Amino acid sequence: MADYGHELAFGTFITPVNDRPHDVVALAQLTEQTGLDLVTFQDHPYQPAFLDTWTLLTWVAARTTTVRLSGNVLNLPLRTPAVLARAAASLDLLSGGRFELGLGAGAFWNAIEAMGGPDRSKRGAVAALSEAIDVIRAIWDPSERRGVYVDGEHYRVHGAKRGPEPAHDIQIWLGGYKPRMLRLIGAKADGWLPTYSYLEDAALARSNRIIDDAAAQSGRDPREIRRLLNISPDVATVEHLLPLALEHGFGTFILWADDSRTIEHWGREVAPALREAVDRERAGAGTPVGEVVRGPKALTLRRDGIDYDALPRSLEAKAMEPGDKGYPRVRSTYLRTGSPGLVLRPESVNDVVDALAFARDQEVPLSVRSGGHGVSGRSTNDGGIVIDVGALNQVDVLDAARGRIRLGPGARWGNVARALAPQRLAMSSGDYGDVGVGGLATTGGIGFLGRKYGLTIDHVVAVELVLADGNAVRADADDYSDLLWALRGAGGNFGIATAFDLDAYELGKVVVSTAIVDGSAAGQLLERWGERVESAPRELTSFLYLYAQRGQSPVCRIVSVYAGDDTDAAVEALTPLLEVGPLLDQEARLVPYAAIVPAFDSYHYGGQRQPLISSGLAEHLTPDLSEELAAGLQTRIAPWLSIRAVGGAVNDVPADASAYAHRHQNFSVTSVGLDADRDDFHAYWDDLRPYLDGLYLSFETDERPERLHEAFPGETLARLGRLKAAYDPDNVFNQNFAILPSEPLAVRERSLR
Predict the structure, then answer these.
(1) What average pLDDT does range 284-304 have in this prediction?
(2) pLDDT confidence of 602, banded at 50, 70, 90?
(3) Residues 239 and 368 in one domain
(4) What pLDDT does 452 receive?
(5) Three-class SS of residue 191?
(6) pLDDT tens-digit profile of 686-723?
(7) Are 315 and 343 in contact (CB under 8 A)?
């Protein structure tokens, strides 16, 4: 037999006796203290002399910090798979990703039948275990919005809710010896967990062959399956275990012992010596070492146009492909289900440089992602490469007195608000806490503090980024000042941002009001709300959301923030907004700004019906515009409408001060339609646009050329074209409303120190 090259791991197998429960826990803690990797417990729920294993695992998880935990093995017949899956995921989350799931067919199948369960003979136990694995893995996979459906002979699950998702990819290890069980291990399990005293060397070789053959038939590499072995103290020596590792491929040895002296010797003497001996033998034989990252089945899912083998070593562990277990977490954005061929997740500026250089050599689309919330969906693609800078998520207060902060593009704005709150600082940043910094801070940043403090980009004083040619630069008022101008509004066209410096402002608590209003007369409601917002003090910023309902009047939700803790002034400013229509409900609270955009870090799994989103800016909500917007709701061509107030401080900035030139409008209008109504939705918006003046690109999925001119009017687009020719002449960054390079600059418009 071959050595599978697994990194060695060592653990203990402790008897969970109930007459000395604290001694059992102490032995588990000793397992960790001696440097061992894993502690396991028997599972005999029917034995009154034993502690309940699941309760014990939970207790030990709370009393340790690094050692991994597992049942050895958990009795499946007495633990329902869907419940077991949620319990396992919960324990993994609570323990920081330290739980593994050892499963066995168990005993007492007849008892289950007697209690009204299905007939589960020993032969049927393997089939039941196979179905249970399907249930468990489906529960752990929230990337599918549809509930779990498994219509098996032994387990039937119809519409069970998915989740929670474990903190890491929990391995499922199966204990078993018969050919049917071994074939199941090869086909579905992550590991084989037998006990050495039940096997002879010939049986070990024969069992491995069965597992390997079943793995190959299932499109797997046999090395994907870890071989674990329970051993007794009498064979816990280097002499006994070395051939088991090198000739039979066992990579994890679990010592069955219940006394501290034996565990101490195992952890401090035998385990290090065996590791050294195995490393020496492998080095001499040239044995490749490490886990199989991708098996044959995963490799077949690779997409054309990407030279996967040319990926730099610096990115190998930070790359995710179709077929990888974690791929569903990274393929999509908030509203869009993507299918990129490769997602690269750099953790440093050098990684970004390497990722961009690799991506430029491929013949596929390139998307850049920060938080992945972007509703337009342009931070994913089909068959291309995504450079996801989510790991660049620093939030640093550089100078609290000046309000100078530094943010990574992958930081979420909710986390930013929470980090700034203790310093009584804030930064207006959209209306949802899991939005990433990078996309918003390069496009605009229409937030709940906008009328008082302006757009997010108005506070950006420097951007560190990697240019299309691979150079890492810093754009500020002294160096690359022309590039800083472009990055504030059209940043997606010029590079990959790796850090932002911004000037935050002092802000304590704010007053937030939420009002629910009858939207029957939507046109009049919008007109009245617009008039009141324009006449309101700058401290007040208000967002309005209207939702169409089948057979019922539209519902209007108005969220307004008064940027200050003067409650009397806030009430005076808010009261007129409560009179725009029949009030159904209202509340107001004095809270820290961080409470309005709470931190919410989540994976985005897409799954929406590819909604269409269009956007426009307006100076006023005129009667004609208001009625047109109401008509979209009534016909359900645009059944969801949001209007965000700008104006105020946003309009104090000169139109030519940044690439965001819209400095006279007071409202940003966005509506959502369904892809099934694409032609009607576009026609509706084509009729609507004459009432509008410009658009905000973050809320736009229509990529017809006209939209680019509306986003960057007149000389703004012309200047951007010249800068594009200087900084990205090959149009590498062409997936986010690409600005085409125009004539090269005679003299570069950048000022160098």
Answers:
(1) 89
(2) confident
(3) no
(4) 98
(5) strand
(6) 999 999 999 999 999 998 999 999 999 999 999 999 99
(7) no
Show Cβ contacts of residue 55 under 8 Å, excluding neighbours closer than 6 positions: none
Nearest Cα to 51, choosing from 23, 79, 87, 91? 23
| Chain segment 613-622, per-residue pLDDT in tens | 999 999 999 9
Give the pair of three-digit tokens for residue 469: 């040619």
* 204-210: Cβ within 8 A, 24+ apart: 204/1, 204/244, 204/248, 205/1, 205/248, 207/177, 207/182, 208/1, 208/248, 208/249, 209/1, 210/179, 210/182, 210/183, 210/186
The fraction of the chain above a pLDDT of 90, given in percent, is 83
Mean pLDDT along residues 1-26:
94
- Within 8 A by CB and 6+ apart from 97, the residues are 166, 167, 168
Both structure tokens of 314 = 């610096």
Give me the residues paired with residue 371 across strands. none
pLDDT of residue 109: 45
619: its two tokens: 């100076």
Query: CA-CA distances (angstroms) from residue 709 to 413, 629, 665?
Result: 29, 23, 16
Contact 7, 289 (CB under 8 A): yes
Residues in Cβ contact with 13 at an 8 Å cutoff, skipping those fewer than 6 apart:
40, 41, 42, 72, 230, 254, 255, 256, 257
Residue 700's nearest CA partner among 714, 679, 685 is 685
Torsion of Cα atoms, 185 then 226 then 94 then 372, to 10°: -90
Same-domain pairing of 308 and 237: no
Looking at this protein, which amino acid is placed at residue 393?
N
**Given a cut of 70, is residue 120 above it in pLDDT?**
no
Q: Is 476 inside a domain boundary?
A: no
Per-residue tokens: 287: 């044995």
Q: d(Cα 399, Cα 422) in Å, to the nearest integer?
A: 13
Cα–Cα separations (whole angstroms), residue 703 to 406, 495, 699, 708: 32, 20, 11, 8
Judgement on whether residues 268 and 375 belong to the same structural domain of the protein: no
Cα dihedral 459, 460, 462, 463 in deg (nearest 10): 170
Same structural domain, 336 and 262 = no
Q: What is the pTM of this model?
A: 0.87
CATH number at residue 604: 3.40.462.20
